[in-house]
């Protein structure tokens, strides 16, 4: 196997592909890249952590068909050290790989290609549609806010529900729940599909797959896999086989109060009291006489109280809110106004916003006062 490539372009492709590599003693191959020269002008680079696979295409010159596995760290390190110009990569005897540029030469040991991790079969496609990369990246940002690194796999995952004309994305860490609906006439499944996708996959989608603000990303759903494809990169992810929490119970709760408030005023009030909210980030929200007063206190240190005008004239009441979570939600949203609904101090706060075709709904559980 042999090929010549532009170092800068090859490194750009590798940055995306290596997102799927992982240092894992149980899967040593998950830290490697599979290099395959498919033709004189095409190189395919594959990385896998056992759960996610990223396959990328790179343009080369003078390619000689063949394949080899190489350490992702060693491979990218050589590219970084040279940075510009062309590099010729040649697989010699005994899987030894030679790297040659105009001013340098290096050798590293490779591994036979057949020892690489199995690549998922994507032939049995169930549903196939496209959506803007910028939209999917934004949705991943919204749902990642309410995932966590929990022992329960579903708390570190997102439920995708594909319906006629829309996709629902649901994630929860037990304190915050995010429910996003993206509407598009191009989504036309024969019947609803439910897929539970791991947090690491969500991060790869946002950081490694949605790199263009103008281009589309192709989404295909298989029996137990999610398959996403752009012009040069493909991500195939296994779904989590686990029952997702009963999110419908939270969404369907009735609410008595429905108001629209200024998000910027709320952010300022939360930041003002953040210093005195303590280790539990407890703040008390008091709704009374067209005012929302947010107060926090740490004994023997100090307290804070800020008020903002809101359209609320019903019976006064207090509710305990985690300021850290509330501030995270408010700073993630973009629109100047948000819709806030609530029922009583023992029920969650419901936060609504909309960005074009993206309907956003956060549920924030109350804290005990």
How would you sum up this structure, described in words?
By secondary structure, this protein is α+β, with helices and mostly antiparallel strands. The chain has three domains: 2-115, DNA Polymerase III, Chain A, domain 2, CATH 3.10.150; 125-248, DNA Polymerase III, Chain A, domain 2 (Roll); 253-364, Roll (DNA Polymerase III, Chain A, domain 2), CATH 3.10.150.10. The chain is 19% helix and 44% strand. The strands form four sheets. An eight-stranded antiparallel beta sheet has the order 6-2-3-4-17-16-15-10. It is elongated, with a radius of gyration of 25 Å.
Number of domains: 3
CATH homologous superfamily (4th level) name of the largest domain: DNA Polymerase III, subunit A, domain 2
Helical segment tally? 7
Report the oligomer. single chain
Question: Which structural category fits the helices and strands?
Answer: alpha+beta
Spatially, the strands of the biggest sheet line up as 6-2-3-4-17-16-15-10
What CATH calls the topology of the largest domain is DNA Polymerase III, Chain A, domain 2
CATH level-two architecture of the largest domain: Roll
Strand proportion, as a percent range, falls in 35-45%
**The top level CATH class name of the largest domain:** Alpha Beta
* Shape, principal axes of CA atoms: elongated
For the residues shown, what is the average pLDDT? 89
The main pleated sheet reads as: 8 strands, antiparallel
User: Termini, distance in Å?
Assistant: 68 Å
Low-confidence regions: none
Count of DSSP strands: 25
Radius of gyration from CA coordinates:
25 Å
């Amino acid at each position: 196997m042999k090929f010549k490539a532009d170092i800068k372009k090859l490194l750009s492709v590798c940055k995306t592909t290596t997102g799927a590599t992982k240092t894992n003693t149980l899967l040593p191959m998950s830290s490697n890249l599979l290099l395959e020269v498919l033709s004189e002008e095409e190189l395919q680079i594959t990385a896998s952590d056992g759960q996610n696979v990223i396959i990328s295409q790179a343009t080369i010159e003078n390619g000689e068909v063949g394949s080899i596995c190489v350490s992702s760290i060693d491979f990218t390190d050589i590219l970084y050290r040279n940075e510009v110009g062309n590099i010729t990569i040649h697989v010699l005897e005994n899987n030894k790989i030679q790297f040659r540029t105009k001013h340098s030469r290096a050798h590293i040991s490779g591994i036979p290609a057949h020892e690489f991790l199995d690549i998922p079969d994507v032939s049995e496609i169930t549903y196939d549609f496209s959506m803007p990369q910028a939209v999917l990246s934004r949705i991943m940002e919204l749902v990642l806010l309410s995932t966590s690194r929990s022992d329960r796999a579903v708390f570190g995952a997102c439920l995708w529900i594909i319906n006629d004309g829309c996709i629902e994305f649901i994630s929860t860490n037990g304190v915050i729940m995010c429910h996003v609906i993206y509407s598009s006439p191009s989504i036309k499944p024969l019947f609803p599909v439910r897929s539970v996708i791991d947090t690491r996959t969500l991060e790869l989608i946002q950081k490694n797959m949605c790199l263009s603000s103008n281009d589309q990303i192709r989404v295909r759903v298989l029996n137990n896999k999610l398959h996403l494809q752009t012009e040069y990169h493909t991500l195939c992810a296994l779904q989590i086989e686990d029952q997702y929490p009963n999110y419908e119970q939270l969404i369907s709760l009735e609410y008595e109060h429905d108001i629209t408030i200024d998000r910027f005023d709320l952010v300022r009030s939360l930041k003002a009291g953040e210093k005195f909210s303590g280790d539990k980030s407890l703040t008390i929200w008091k709704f009374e006489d067209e005012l929302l007063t947010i107060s926090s206190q740490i004994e023997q240190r100090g307290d804070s109280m800020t008020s903002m005008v809101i359209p609320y004239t019903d019976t006064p009441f207090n509710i305990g809110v985690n300021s850290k979570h509330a501030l995270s939600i408010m700073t993630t949203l973009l629109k100047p106004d948000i819709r806030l609904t609530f029922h009583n101090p023992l029920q969650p706060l419901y936060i609504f916003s909309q960005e074009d075709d993206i309907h956003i709904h956060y549920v924030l559980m109350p804290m005990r006062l």
